Amino acid sequence: MVDMDNPAALSPQPPGTVDKDAPLKEDIRLLGRLLGDVLRDQEGEAVFDLVETIRQTAVRFRREDDQEADAELKALLAKLSREETNSVVRAFSYFSHLANIAEDQHHIRRRRAHLLAGSKPQPSSVAYALTRLKDAGVAQNTVEGFLREALIAPVLTAHPTEVQRKSTLDAEHDIARLLAERDLPLTPKERARNLQLLQARIATLWQTRMLRYEKLTVADEIENALSYYRTTFLRELPAVYDDVEEEIEAQYGAAAAGLDDAAYMQMGSWIGGDRDGNPNVNAATMQRALVRHSTTIFDFYLDEVHALGAELSPSTLLVPASAALLALADASPDHSPHRSDEPYRRALIGIYARLASTARELGATNILRKEVGHADSYRDAAEFRAELQVLVDSLIENHGAILAVPRLNGLVRAARIFGFHLASLDMRQSSDVHEKVLAELFARAGVEGDYAALSEDAKVKLLLDELAQPRLLYTPYESYSDTTNAELQILRTAREIRKRYGRRAIRNYIISHTETVSDLLEVLLLQKETGLYRPSEKKSDVMVIPLFETIPDLQRASEIMGEWMALPVVADVIGHQGRLQEVMLGYSDSNKDGGFLTSNWELYQAELKLVKVFADANVKLRLFHGRGGTVGRGGGPSYDAILAQPPGTVNGQIRLTEQGEIISSKFSNPEIGRRNLELLVAATLEAGLMPHGADREQIERLARFEPVMAELSQRAYKAYRNLVYETPGFTDYFFAATPIAEIAELNLGSRPASRKSTRRIEDLRAIPWGFSWGQCRLLLPGWFGFGAAVSGWLAEGDREQRLGLLREMAQHWPFFATLLSNMDMVLAKSDLAIASRYAELVPDAELRERIFKRIAAEYGETLQCLALVTGTDERLVNNPLLARSILNRFAYLDPLNHLQVELIQRHRALSAEQKVDERVHRGIHLSINGVAAGLRNTG
């Protein structure tokens, strides 16, 4: 890591300019130097020198496309022993991790500097959004009414791209804390101590196993997700509410009113409830998820109430207390004469006892501090919150409002947000499973012998008839298949969980591969079989939510939803849901199905059509965006993505998935986590309340823009489908030229990489599909087809006129601008030279040359067309910080790719002889970890 001592290596600034990123460079140099010291100490000078030689040779290969450097690098890597290989891979991997920590700390530093300078609000902040709304004439009561009705829900999912172990995360949290400490005024002794601790934590990282030797279980995934609640969500989410109310008052000059009971931002989870393609998820994992959710939030509440007991020491000898508080204190099991004049403490001891009793009833088994005495449990979280409010009201009445600020107000807010369930657990299953279960139920009940063979109309009629029947299809006196028993048990468990933990514990059922109205009715009928839908009440406890994933599914989405909402039985259900219906849109599978450009366009079109259908039905639409980490799977900045949604689609109701390593990058640091939560609120406010309809000029523009986009989409779709699904040998090329096979072996998650045991692209999950292209640095799902679409369209008309129209689209259409920006980011992280090394893994020379040549040609054409539209061939012109980040880290990321290729060659050669070298295998997995950390959004 010698180069870290050379400032010139870290994108120097022109003379005379103020380098705002100098602290970042200093941090990266420091962490790189400390990692180098650890490497010398742990592995020896020879390994350290070897790492530097590989880095320098890789830099020559990148900068000069030097064939001599290429040959040297190949020879150098081929000579590495197994022990040396793993040490080198680990060194470069950990540098990526440390660079991420430094960048996160710099983002926090720059944000604070911006706030301290009193600069204008940043575009992605709540203050900026409220300023724009006020300037546009949106009244304060409109904003507050919007928030009272809103639901903004990040939904954490477990997918096989999260490669961090919790032990690694814990060490990295400490490194981040120590790095932040260096921005404070420290004495020389304190600074030396800080440096010593930093090196100790980096050494801890070096001596900690980076990989899991056992496959991750659903229980492990649940625990991993809960660590982010303890780190970030439990404190920072309530703090975001406080920030929003403060900004409303600052912008409008009056305190926010009526938001005390608002819960416009809540957390969701799929972990433990998402059964689609995961045989390891069942009723038991759902129960475990809720027990662990509940235990986590009770641990937090108990700790906070205990701390409040120490803090709230007002004495009635000095200040009065409300009658309600005194009654609460008298009901406490605490009768100590030493606290007879301290009603707040006595009340809190009673609250603690009630919480402890409730926690035990709901599954908690390890309450660290024993309560003073027994107290009855709470009926629900609302009763807990009401008792806390008694304390708040008494303090306000008796000159103690300021005493509620440090902790009590946040606890009241947390109780409103998290309840006793922490996060809503979604259920998800594939439509074909539901069909299979109902076919068996119908057959055993003697209602229909071959349900699956019926036409769609016949299925709908049968399902509606059955929904109107008071009797059940299921009988305990028949035998059923394991699948049917398991699916029914899951729904019965959901009913029990709702009774036990509250209605918000489970409230959504998502249907993968929704293609027809019968797919939706099937789930409603299964709910009837398990007591979640009651015909007599015309009410369903759990919302039935379609997931439209493929291009054809997206194109049919509005038609299906129109038919669904027109059914009288469904209209009654939606009426009980507050005339609200959620629809989930799948970014991942639509991209794998149709490519980047077409996926984005069909999603946009589907949303526009859904808005119209829902308006006609007088039903409020909530969209659930199934976004992933990669741009090809809907990734990219969330703020920009929300603002780029079509008008009318963000009406205060939005859910979106947070997946894989994106959860870590967004929420492992509390301050960055708070910032990411805030920008979701800011974007939802701006997208939902900024006036749209009166902009006649924009309406006229869209009338010109949309037909162009439709034609570009058709061309891109044809190019993408031709390569991926119609080119002979493409599947063989993909499995050879990417580490997909090795990724499938990695203990990354509880879900298989493929839905079926085949090598068909159609059966491969979209997540490992995108992840594999990221590892080989092509990131093909994020750009392929754009060049062919734009160049073909320009060639078939007045080139200058058409180019002018594309530039106008980029300037005046947020959808198209965001699409180009995301593609720009992907291309900045792509590297054709590195990808060519992976292509060498394809044993068939003719196949390798034929397909890589096509990919390279489209890559070049895409770069050229993007430059024509944006007016620059430089990547990330509008995001210089990211551009410098990429430049700084690629000298350390590239060697990992070269090492990965070398290791894959060794592994596959041994596999051909039916041998396995565990060190080689481990080295590949270490390199996958390092590349994912270096690219940050590859999952």
Automatic annotation (TrEMBL):
InterPro entries xref list: PEP_COase, PEP_COase_bac/pln-type, PEP_COase_Lys_AS, PEPCASE_His_AS, Pyrv/PenolPyrv_kinase-like_dom
Coiled-coil stretches: none
Annotated catalysed reactions: oxaloacetate + phosphate = phosphoenolpyruvate + hydrogencarbonate
Active site (record annotation): H159, K592
Pfam family, any one: PEPcase
Keyword Nuclease: no
Binding partners and assembly: Homotetramer.
HAMAP family (UniProt xref): PEPcase_type1
Family indicated by similarity: Belongs to the PEPCase type 1 family.
Protein name per the record: Phosphoenolpyruvate carboxylase
Protein's organism: Telluria antibiotica
Phylogenetic classification of the source organism: Bacteria, Pseudomonadati, Pseudomonadota, Betaproteobacteria, Burkholderiales
